[in-house]
Predict the 3D structure of the following.
Amino acid sequence: MDIYSGHINKLIEELSRLPGVGAKSAQRLAFHIINMPRIEVEGIANAMLDAKDNVRYCKECFTLTDEEICPICRDQKRNHKVIMVVEQTRDMAAYEKTGKYDGVYHVLHGAISPMLGIGPGDIKLKELMIRLQGDVDEVIIATNSNLEGETTAMYISKMIKQAGIKVTRIASGVPVGGDLEYIDEVTLLRALDGRTEL
Amino acid sequence: MDIYSGHINKLIEELSRLPGVGAKSAQRLAFHIINMPRIEVEGIANAMLDAKDNVRYCKECFTLTDEEICPICRDQKRNHKVIMVVEQTRDMAAYEKTGKYDGVYHVLHGAISPMLGIGPGDIKLKELMIRLQGDVDEVIIATNSNLEGETTAMYISKMIKQAGIKVTRIASGVPVGGDLEYIDEVTLLRALDGRTEL
């Protein structure tokens, strides 16, 4: 990449570190940034540093937040006896968008993956067990429906059942609006296994 | 997007301004940035501002560069009598990667597009005409092979022919390694029209 000048090369190199940004798109982004008004470039640069400096884990549920305790954990109108366990803050955001869940969350920040060398100690599981010593009625496991998510769900359910707390798992099956002919076989079988009476 | 805290929202909003970054990928980038070491976030933020502050147009060919005159225009071993006209600095970079072109360039920073309201005065055409008052043997037009690129090529060739300078256009046809059956009809006809004797 010695075709471009030093500052352009440096910017392309830095942008390529971001996930999903390859050499070509880093190049496109770099030229866009150079052509933006300086005030807008400052806006992006400052937003990055501000977020990095000010965002931390909520002391209760470990979501990413600006304050010590996140707005959901502070909300006394929510049911603090029901905890939904998710892998990432964005998964929590996905359920919040539905507007129908009134319990609280616990963000693991990852999933158990022997392949990637991520064990139970590498995600916020210990922190979950500590929370369960309080007054909890139900733990809803909403990890992803892939190998890592299922492994994590299994591990957590075993751990929690010993503590005598009700554990549930969100349903897996055909997405609403999905055409059966385009759904993979594993999902079809999962939907069959999980069928409910009408 | 009130699901996230202020700093996260602000970062997602700023990142969505970038081309090709939608709401979902801005979210993914934001969480990645928050989880990066601060020194790396600083690296990206500074590279943006440094590039914005230090990169300017080359006074000769108008490519983006750190110096007053870019390395290609300064290079006395190159043939300054042959000028390749391209739309963007990255197009110039694409030809430089071939390593086979030894002339110089002229970067228009755009193409004529009546649809987008971009006229001849909005790209570096006047600057090209001024360069042509010097000692120039040939102008190779290497604008893109789309409507805007072709319009621009036509406009430039008319302008330059009046000045009595040789004008050529890079060939348009089937890409090397391309299967005829997957090539669109316009390209196939273009390739036929542009056939050369063996």
Remarks:
- Chain A touches chain B through 55 residues (CB under 8 Å).
- Chain A has a mean pLDDT of 90.
- DSSP finds eight helices and six strands in chain A.
